[in-house]
Amino acid sequence: MSAAAIHVPDRSLSARIARRSARYLARRPLRPQLQRGIVSFTFDDCPRSVLLNALPLLERENWRATIYACIGLCDTRNHLGVHMSEAQLVEAHQRGHEIADHSFSHLDAAAVGADAMRADIARNREAFARLDLPRARSFAYPYGEATTETKRALAGEFELLRGIHNPKSATLDLNLSASARLYEDTVDTVVAQIETAAKERRWLTLFTHDVRKLPSAFGCTTDSLERVIAACLQQGVDVLPVGPALDLAKTRIKERLA
Ligand SMILES: [Zn+2]
After folding, report:
1. How far apart are CA 210 and CA 50, in angstroms?
2. How many angstroms separate the alpha carbon of residue 242 from the centre of ligand 1?
3. How many whole angstroms from 175 Cα to the centroid of ligand 1?
4. How many angstroms does the Cα of residue 84 sit away from the middle of ligand 1?
5. Nearest-angstrom CA–CA distance, 153 and 162
6. Measured in Å, how far apart are the chain's first and last C-alpha atoms?
7. Which of the two residues, 14 and 182, has the higher pLDDT score?
8. CATH number corresponding to 30-257
9. Would you say 38 and 204 are in contact if contact means Cβ atoms under 8 Å apart?
10. For residue 101, which of 87, 121, 129, 85 has the smallest C-alpha distance?
11. Is this model's pTM higher than 0.90 or not?
């Protein structure tokens, strides 16, 4: 994505059918056995407002988040505002947050194909290594765009590949896992989803972008984030970044007690 333009994924009927069928193919299902519900806060791209406004609120509760970062977006400005510098991304890591992969250039997998996607991911991985950031364990598809081909191609590269479709069940597909959008107009839904996660001991992943007073249509305000934090506290869920949550989700309760 260029710094200025907002990319619009293909909305044609054939693209929508392909997108839907990709959800049901090349799956790697996992049904977590949890003692308590888990909520993971994830932030896509790397808006500076996340570092300045969102992470301190989570840190106040001694919680950490996952940032799906495109190193190619560092220091650029777009509809999400200014993005973090490389040094600020490293600072977020040093403050205990997980930095995960979102491709170097924010590529649309459905538009560019699996080979170009892998090459761009390799570029992001090299940048992570240059910055002394740990190798990313998980990946979020830019625009949530995944094809069956990309799911297969990336399955061996990451422990989890995250999408942006709303969670419908307790079972997740590690090749295209669901994630609830935390946008200014979805807060009530998210609060209800947190209640369900607590009650049914599910792992709920949330995603958003910029967090500021006047957020883009893809972000939210700190007031909304505070409401979601309050819901997590009230429901007594564990709040963990994706990597540690995945470790818990993969461990059977019996093994945990042994
Ligand atoms: Zn993105």
Report:
1. 6
2. 16
3. 17
4. 14
5. 14
6. 48
7. 182
8. 3.20.20.370
9. yes
10. 121
11. yes
Find the 105 Cα to ligand 1 centroid distance in Å: 10
pLDDT digits (tens, 9 = 90+) for 198-237: 999 999 999 999 999 999 999 999 999 999 999 999 999 9
Q: Enumerate helices (H) and strands (E) in the chain, giving the number of each.
A: 11, 12
The tens digit of pLDDT for each residue in 15-66 reads 888 888 888 899 999 999 999 999 999 999 999 999 999 999 999 999 999 9
pLDDT in tens, 69-105: 999 999 999 999 999 999 999 999 999 999 999 999 9
CA of 106 to the centre of ligand 1 (A): 6
Closest CA to 138 of 105, 91, 179: 179
The number of C-alpha atoms within 13 Å of 109 and in the hemisphere containing its C-beta is 29
Rounded to 5°, angle at Cα 104 from 220 and 122: 140
Segments making up each domain of the chain, as ranges = 30-257
* CA angle 166–171–177, rounded 5-degree value: 45
* Ligand 1 center to 258 CA (angstroms): 40
> Rounded to a whole number, what is the largest CA-CA distance in the chain?
53
Distance 62 CA to ligand 1 centre (A): 26
Structure tokens at 67: 């940032």
